């Protein structure tokens, strides 16, 4: 499926939870998607770092979007399972996620992602790695 950045932005806006979190795609290539989210107080837990659920949701949806770029026309990608490894607390100005397809398939695609916290000065720190199994389903 050929997906350009405008189409991808529409895809993210059509997912209410992603829109509410403020996740925005920044680039797309076949099998690869980049996203970001500006960190706000509502994204943080009681210690001031970004909540793990925000990081996991960012990685999951970005991996799904990467797999969608490899799916045949008339098919949707849905997460079958995913794992997120939190490497350190995330704080700063924004989170950036890069996700890619490790192995595309007609029924199942395997994906990975990395999430970085970006400080005001631009320093990037790897805060999470994720992997996901995406089911490719026929649209009905």
Automatic annotation (TrEMBL):
Keywords, alphabetical: Hydrolase
Limits of the Thioesterase domain: 48-117
EC class of the enzyme, as a word: hydrolase
Annotated GO MF terms: fatty acyl-CoA hydrolase activity
Lineage top rank: taxon: Bacteria
Catalysis performed (reactions): a medium-chain fatty acyl-CoA + H2O = a medium-chain fatty acid + CoA + H(+); a fatty acyl-CoA + H2O = a fatty acid + CoA + H(+); a long-chain fatty acyl-CoA + H2O = a long-chain fatty acid + CoA + H(+)
Signal peptide: none
Keyword Transferase: no
A Pfam family it matches: 4HBT
SUPFAM superfamilies: Thioesterase/thiol ester dehydrase-isomerase (SSF54637)
Known EC number: 3.1.2.20
InterPro entries: HotDog_dom_sf, PAAI_dom, Thioestr_dom
CDD domains: PaaI_thioesterase
Family recorded in the similarity comment: Belongs to the YigI thioesterase family.
Protein name: Medium/long-chain acyl-CoA thioesterase YigI
The organism of origin for this protein: Roseateles saccharophilus (Pseudomonas saccharophila)
């Amino acid at each position: 499926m050929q997906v350009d950045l405008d189409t991808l932005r529409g895809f993210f806006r059509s997912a209410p939870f992603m829109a509410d979190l403020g996740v925005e795609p920044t680039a797309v290539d076949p099998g690869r998607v980049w996203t970001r989210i500006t960190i706000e107080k509502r994204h943080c837990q009681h210690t001031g770092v970004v909540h793990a659920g925000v990081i996991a949701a960012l990685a999951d949806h970005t991996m799904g979007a990467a797999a969608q770029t490899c799916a045949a026309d008339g098919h949707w990608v849905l997460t079958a399972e995913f794992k997120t490894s939190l490497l350190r607390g995330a704080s700063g100005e924004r989170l950036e996620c890069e996700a890619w397809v490790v192995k595309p398939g007609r029924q199942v695609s395997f994906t990975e992602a990395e999430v970085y916290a970006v400080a005001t000065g631009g320093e990037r720190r790897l805060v999470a790695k994720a992997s996901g199994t995406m089911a490719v389903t026929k649209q009905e």
